[in-house]
Amino acid sequence: MEKEIMDDVKKYQKLEKLKKWRDEVQPIPWYFDGLENLCDRIHPDKQFLQVTDIKQLSKDTKLFRFVSAKPNKLLAPFRAGQYIGLIVDINGVRTSRPFSLASSPNQLAYYELGVKRKVGGFVSNYLLEKLKIGDILEATEPLGDLYYNRTFHGKDLVFIAGGSGITPFISLLKYISEQNFKLNIWLFFGCLSEDDILFKDELDDIQTRRPNIKIQYILSEPGPNWDGPYGFITKDKILDAIKSIENKFFYIVGNRAMYSFIQEQMKELGVPRHRVIYEFYGVPDDVTRIVGWPKDIKASSTIKVTIEFIQRGRKVKEIFDAQCVEPLLNSLEREKDLGIMINNGCRSGACALCRTKLVSGKIFMLPEVTMREIDQDYGYIHPCVSYPLTDIHIDLTLI
Ligand code: FES
Predict the structure, then answer these.
(1) What is the tens place of the pLDDT at every residue in 156-212?
(2) Which of 87, 211, 370, 398 counts the highest number of beta carbons within 10 A?
(3) Are residues 250 and 356 in the same domain?
(4) Is residue 237 part of a domain?
(5) Closest-lying ligand 1 atom to the alpha carbon of residue 349
(6) Which of 370, 382, 386, 396 to mutate to test the pocket of ligand 1 (most atoms within 8 A of CB)?
């Protein structure tokens, strides 16, 4: 009996010793580090990108190639069609803009982004004029819902692009042809003139090698030598090529004017809303022309914004002036002395990263934005697409 007890004690001591050794050697489960690293790799808080190449794509568009600026950090993987937010500091104003990735996700060594000049574009013009090889920029992780989903999108895809809206499709087409997916694809690419057809060589090459990918360039202002289709991307042109909308899934990327036109075409074709993905719209050049804008608000109105936020561990309150015709997020970023940058990605009301508590006051939110019901009920807004109509109070500590 005594021997049995002693054996048990020894066993217990051995187990305790083993447990102690395990705690010392492996204080956390063996897989924890791997998972943490993987999550950090896929969803980094931020990335640092270094420009390694700049290519002029057209008179007003450049293609920038970036590698990871940190030798021990790989670029975050992405899905063809997604975008990243590039963060810049322009004369003390820290802001960001989303840009679609044009490279293939199979290419893990670099990202390529197309940037087009925009009239009055604060960031795009800065990038086109100032960014040079060797410069380092901060960026978000890859974001966005415009990507091919095998389960829901089927095998017949219709891509409709306007101008620089071609960039996510370049990534998608490269990826789909590299993966040899058996998909039928029709791309309708609307441009102003022949000189504005971005990535024409790559597109022609893909079309030549992949008979299941058919591309139409449609010019709205063709030159005298153009013998291809011209005008707008109408339902007749689409139907003529795809024959029927049955089992087709539509992806649409362009500017606001193109969206309104294409939305009508989709309706007339009878395409159900759930068979269409629209990439984000961006904000309008003139919000007072948007349906629903209150006519009694003067475009020159200045609004007082009270903002509460945490600074050096303390909650502080500040007041600044904003313009009613500028998105609240932009006005806040202009207040460089506050040193606040609200987390953001799409700047179009889609990703919800900028979600902010509106304590009081009235705002105008762009009509296409859909907020979660719970956010609406509790008074949250997306400042990237919100325009203050009265003096307002926001609280960044209530997230
Ligand atoms: S930045 Fe995406 S919703 Fe505001």
Answers:
(1) 999 999 999 999 999 999 999 999 999 999 999 999 999 999 999 999 999 999 999
(2) 87
(3) no
(4) yes
(5) 3
(6) 382
Other Cβ atoms within 10 Å of 357 Cβ, number: 17
CB 180, CB 205: distance < 8 Å: no
CATH number, domain of 260, equals: 3.40.50.80
Looking at the structure, tell me whether residues 157 and 266 fall in a common domain: yes
Q: Is the domain of 270 the same as that of 348? A: no
Q: Is the CB of 354 under 6 A from ligand 1?
A: yes
**Which of 142, 206, 139 minimizes the C-alpha distance to 169?**
206
Q: What is the span of the domain harbouring residue 367?
A: 302-395
Residue 383 in domain:
yes
Q: Ligand 1: distance of its center to the CA of 40 in Å? A: 22
Q: Which residue has the higher pLDDT, 11 or 164?
A: 164
- The predicted complex's ipTM stands at 0.99
With a pLDDT cut of 90, the percent of the chain lying above it is 79
CA–CA dist 359, 341 (Å, integer): 19
Burial class (CB in 10 A: 0-12, 13-18, 19+), 324: buried
CB 305 within 8 A of CB 388: yes
Whether 353 is covered by a domain: the verdict is yes
**Mean of per-residue pLDDT scores for the chain:** 92
SS3 (DSSP) at 153: helix
